[in-house]
Amino acid sequence: MSTPHSLSSLFSPRSIALVGASDDPTRIGGRPLRYLRASGYAGEVFPINPNRDSVQGMPAYASIASLPQVPDVALLAVPAAATIESIRACADRGVGAAIVFSAGFAETSEEGKVMQQEITSIARESGMRVLGPNCLGVFNAQTGYYGTFSAIFDSAFVQPGPLAIVSQSGAYGSHLAHLARERGLGISHWVTTGNECDVDVAEALDWIVEQPQVKVVMAYAEGVRDGQRFLAALDKARRNQVAIVFMKVGRSQVGAQAVSSHTAALAGSDAVFDAVLRQYGVYRARTTAEQLDIAYAASRASSVSGNRLGIFTLSGGFGIQMADDAEDAGLAVTAMPASAQDELKRLLPYASPNNPVDATAQALTDLPLMSQFIRAMLDKGGYDLFAAILGSGPASPTFADSLRQAMAEATLDSPDCLKCLTLSAPAEIVRSYEAQGFLVYQDGSALINALGALVRFRAHFDQVGQTDPLPAAVPQLSIPQRAMSEHEAKSLLARAGIPFPAECLIAADQDPGAAARQLGFPLVMKISSADLPHKTEVGGVRLHLKDEDEVRQAMARMLESVRVKAPDAQIEGVTLAPMIGGGVETIVGVFSDPTMGPVVMFGLGGVYVEVLKDVTFRVAPFDQQEALRMIREIRGFAMLEGVRGAPPADIDALAQLLAQLSHFAAAHAGQFDSIDLNPVVVLPRGEGVLALDALIVPATLTA
Amino acid sequence: MSTPHSLSSLFSPRSIALVGASDDPTRIGGRPLRYLRASGYAGEVFPINPNRDSVQGMPAYASIASLPQVPDVALLAVPAAATIESIRACADRGVGAAIVFSAGFAETSEEGKVMQQEITSIARESGMRVLGPNCLGVFNAQTGYYGTFSAIFDSAFVQPGPLAIVSQSGAYGSHLAHLARERGLGISHWVTTGNECDVDVAEALDWIVEQPQVKVVMAYAEGVRDGQRFLAALDKARRNQVAIVFMKVGRSQVGAQAVSSHTAALAGSDAVFDAVLRQYGVYRARTTAEQLDIAYAASRASSVSGNRLGIFTLSGGFGIQMADDAEDAGLAVTAMPASAQDELKRLLPYASPNNPVDATAQALTDLPLMSQFIRAMLDKGGYDLFAAILGSGPASPTFADSLRQAMAEATLDSPDCLKCLTLSAPAEIVRSYEAQGFLVYQDGSALINALGALVRFRAHFDQVGQTDPLPAAVPQLSIPQRAMSEHEAKSLLARAGIPFPAECLIAADQDPGAAARQLGFPLVMKISSADLPHKTEVGGVRLHLKDEDEVRQAMARMLESVRVKAPDAQIEGVTLAPMIGGGVETIVGVFSDPTMGPVVMFGLGGVYVEVLKDVTFRVAPFDQQEALRMIREIRGFAMLEGVRGAPPADIDALAQLLAQLSHFAAAHAGQFDSIDLNPVVVLPRGEGVLALDALIVPATLTA
């Protein structure tokens, strides 16, 4: 095994070999060469074809071995059957990275799977990085490096820019590049990972979000193989203030089945993937159109200082529609100051001067008036975001130029406000407004949704470095790899800082009187046994025990009942704990996700979880601030704020418990399959939180 | 008052007068004349301008009075101040309809409001119909009648087609027409209603959905004035199988404020409006782009036979994405039969033959293979809907023509399946596929969402005529216009068929023993008084009374407690009723919406309503089938199906209660402000449903 090479040779090679180079510029072995020659790529390019002296007018080489120098990257345009031999030749020569275009590997057959594993082995042993197989390759628009046979470059290359694209699917990645180019967006790097025998989406993302020119990434995946690497890449992106707009497919049942029959990615749970994206501030796009709309905003916008939006319209209806959308997107449509409203009313009595500011169609026939309105909004409205609804005016044959000039002048002196337009016009008119610094959308809803996304990206970036210290250090414990009684599980978790009510274990032959007196009444009694996770069914739970006599009688009956109903169970005795009254019942759990590792679940108890599936997730570990965001995410959150006259619950203590548990789970990953705290009672504010039950399922019991 | 004229003179005039006709073809008074002359309108056009002999080369008239004949419609391109005089002249001459373009009426000032009321009065007295003021008018593409000054016809007119547009906002209506034209959609009628001093969106809709060429309507409103007319129009649309795609704005708080400051429409509650659209099968679009996407499908699709969708793709990723969307849209992505899958596997071992059927990029280089795949899907898949994902292939310079031909041949013999494509290509290529009968979208999610809408439109059309008879006739009663005790409210509603537990009213000086014995124990006792809607607070409710003695004691204490705590209340006595155990608690209510009339509300009891606002609405009356759809709409519906081992609840009986109550409410509209049944206990299936409390607030008490 060698240390794997950096991905720089894959993404920014100084020299390129094309194995299987073809004279036909429309074939897989011909396109990359044609692109590299036409795009201005400045490095060395070596066509390899043992049957020809020249390819597309360039001298051809017989083999990798016979090249005059070691290329940084080798593009393999050879059939699946010939791939292993080529890969080995590249590795032997010390090539930095290879890109395998051919399909016919793990996605096709068992035989293909074996071949793919062989490629992986060669990569691991040599340190050479391999992209694919079954991928469309890479491009780097800055250097003109087109290591791809994607047909979308038949029409045009791509301008460099702050957008990058990382896609498991070649076809989807090509489609995104095509749409971005049509939208006038520049692209810095583009990579499609296909079957991911070595380089995967996570690692490509990790490399790309370090590139200084990259501000936003559009990503596509059906699943990720290495959850930890993926989480690290998302964390790095957030720290580098790179916005990620993700299309994750396979959320439906049929979709998930199709994923598994497609590139055989480890799909994992879509709900967990979704929670991960939310946790790291990644925007999960629901449609490709939305993915483009958000990426466009993140590419073109400078910085966003807040969420106050001023809406300027020439027609009331559009303004109302945009105000509706703004509320959904979490933007604040704050009113203009009263004095500024008076001023606008004086200028045009018909106007609505509040916000949306409606200057009516009148303004289109009186552009200086329009300028005055817009300038008043920008100067006096205190807006972070400004959107003007221009309709088809900018395409008007009669006043397009004067309108554009008026817009430019009106908005010149307000650099801190992000200025956006909706309009319906041909691309060249859109570009001219963009050149003046405007974000331009045809659909107002798409614009507002994108502005909401920008505000949330900003909030997530700002969270970096704001993490608060753990309330209590988590000790490194050892989780026994055998069934544990509730009492043992509680003792273990209590050492990790999880709060439980006081509890006494009474051996079967002991008298419970003294312990009962000490704890105080009323009490709850439970049978204590590692063999009885379901206690109620064997008569192993008694509530509301009011005095010592009741406790003694209950203990005798419980032991008798359990002896009859579960004769083989090993009994430690019974536990006694005070009854806890009041508070809001919640459920907290941790499970070990095969991809992402320990995942913490939180929900309200009872019907909320069972009927409404009102639960949310976070990968461990996380801090108390993140736990608060998690808690606020559930639909029934109002229950914790106090309803029907109930006092507000101790949400801070609940957040502390969640954070504490997440750190315990992360520190003991691999040792458990699941941990359940059900219920966790959240007491009134200031009184804390108590877990009333605990169940730990160790890893070995389910493996 | 005269009988109002039909809207035919407004929408299909044989002759048109243009008051304020201008020689300048870019002015409000010039555009309509220019349009009418260029569009091929075959009727008479009379420009009116007292200062000129001719306008745009046509002879001009001095006034309406001096016209050689009475025009069907008069377009008024005069300032607000001159409008009333013109309107009166039109009415005096017997003109059928007038369109008022000018702004400056109710949306502007009190003075404007008075002027607008004057127009309304003239319309009501004369029977002449008035559209506007503050509107952009009407067009009818079939006849070339452009009674509008909208600037979007500067570039081109509109082809006739099955789409109609009804918009309160002129600017929004123009924008929709512009987008539809760009999308290649033909439009039959277009109307913008503005301030709606006479003709409103509801009446325009009502007229338009009767036109035989109209299959789909895009509508826009901020609110409706006449709820009953609106409901009647939606009902007619459904009966005529006309799909309506509605943009209703003002759902947010800021948006609703902006509505009220805009055209001053009676906004009503957005939640009720939303429920009305759902009830009548209208699609409420969230964005303008979505509105277009749905209208496009409804315009172009023939008929939809079911919801089974076959997906053909050349790239796994796109297929998975589409399958995800299909599940969200309620479509069934059913698998290909096993034998057909085997056949496809033999044709191409790399293929995924299930559904989505993935023929891989291979199929693009082997079009006969692609045809075989598609034909197998259409012949053997049993699909109602077929979607093929073609990407940018159709725009390829090398194989665009052969691909289009292959697609046409492959799909020729399956007329019953609706065939759709996603592709990225210039408009002329899109049109060529459309000409072959395909629906064409760029975005797959937009396509699938639209197909889901078509399936739901179909389902709603099919519901017409399936209404079931009422379970019991609703007698015409009279709701007393004074406060009523719970007992009196129950008695009234029981006569209307609402089921309550048996209940006895015991006068204060009577002994409750005999009644208690007859009812059986345990019992619930409540104070009976029209003056005490909140009984618990005065000690007026006692539960779990186990025998006669308890009942007697409870009655004495209750009467004493109430005498102390509410000395002024008039006491009828107490009621006794059996305690009802088990079942699921729900809440049923009716309130009188200012626009839509009586609206029935349904939700689960307790925290579901208070925390989750998990309630739904229907306008009264409706039948049991509609009630079942209403019940299934709430998020917590699973509670009624039985959770935690509880038996399924008697949903049919609940639906019967809702339908019965809705008919009672409709028959007594105007007599009450609200009716509350809280709780309504739904017993296990077969055991019925019981309302445990009733409160009626008569209309006069809140008016």
UniProtKB/TrEMBL annotation, chains A, B:
It is an enzyme of class 6 (ligase). The keyword Ligase applies. InterPro entries: ATP-grasp (IPR011761), ATP_grasp_subdomain_1 (IPR013815), CoA-bd (IPR003781), NAD(P)-bd_dom_sf (IPR036291), Succ_CoA_lig_flav_dom (IPR032875), Succinyl-CoA_synth-like (IPR016102). Pfam families: ATP-grasp_5 (PF13549), CoA_binding_2 (PF13380), Succ_CoA_lig (PF13607). Its EC number is 6.2.1.13. Residues 490-526 form the ATP-grasp domain. Gene3D superfamilies: ATP-grasp fold, A domain, ATP-grasp fold, B domain, NAD(P)-binding Rossmann-like Domain, Succinyl-CoA synthetase domains. PROSITE patterns: ATP_GRASP (PS50975). One of its GO terms (molecular function) is ATP binding. Keywords: ATP-binding, Ligase, Nucleotide-binding. It comes from the Bacteria. In the N-terminal section; belongs to the acetate CoA ligase alpha subunit family. PANTHER family: BLL6376 PROTEIN (PTHR42793:SF4), COA BINDING DOMAIN CONTAINING PROTEIN (PTHR42793). This is Acetate-CoA ligase [ADP-forming] II subunit alpha.
